[in-house]
Amino acid sequence: MSDDRAATVELLGERTFSLAPGRTILAGALAAGVPHYHACGGNAQCSTCRVYVERGAEQLTPPSAAERRLAEKMGFPDGVRLACQARARTPGATLVLHRIVRDEDDLNLFVRTHARGRSLGEQRELALFFLDIRGFTGFAESSLPFDVIHILNRFFALVRGALAEHGGRVIEVAGDGLYAVFGLEGGDAVAPAIRAGRQIIDDVARFSLDYTERYFGYRVTIGVGLHYGRVICGHVGIGVDGALSVIGYPVNVAARLQAATKELNNSFVVSRRAIERLDDPGALGLADVEPQIVFLRGVREPCAVYLLGAPYRDG
Ligand code: FES
Question: 28 with 95, same domain?
């Protein structure tokens, strides 16, 4: 005897409705009077119908080929399904969902994101790289504005070049500091970040010797902090274009590692979490390096770190 019990769908914060066997979530929602967006008419082309499945994902039919294509193109995070494709496959199933596009503002934001082919926001494991010029404020206060900006532009051109060479992506530049990530395109994240950090430290030392010390009597030194962790990536901003943001607790840890370069008297501080991601630490000359335990301001647990740079000459 066939079991044709309807599923129960709870749209969080909205309403609960029954979903007859074989019916899509979209069809069920519309029948129940939910104004569920479906710009392409249920053809797995627009994704305005997408929902986040809070509970019961395993009780849904697997994504159709068309849904898989769209999900891949738009970088759907785990748990996001197209309501126009998904049906309950377990009789009497209970499904708990969030609608993602709920009103006109959501829709406008979504259309812009979609038009730019951007991901909707996802969790990623990335190498998080913070860099700062040490003691630049003192130089800036005693120098001509033109010289200050000119040196910063020279400095950032040099840093950008090294980051690009090793696959790093700049997320934010603030004053005389910079935040970048590695691993956005997949593949190895930490080894390229370490290579970039070393190259930047060497390049900056040369730049300082050949240029700023010679013409301005100013020695440029930098601090670099590197960590690895699971973060949230997505386009956020107050402007129309919204820049890529990468946020989360590991980002704070990476920033604190950079800040700790001064008290640890070393230009490149890398967390053990990052080093543990290396397939072959020996290839980077790190086979015999020992970590030390430090307490970072604002970080919950003690942190094991490796000092991969050089001591500052002035401590
Ligand atoms: S309605 Fe367009 S993808 Fe579902």
Answer: yes
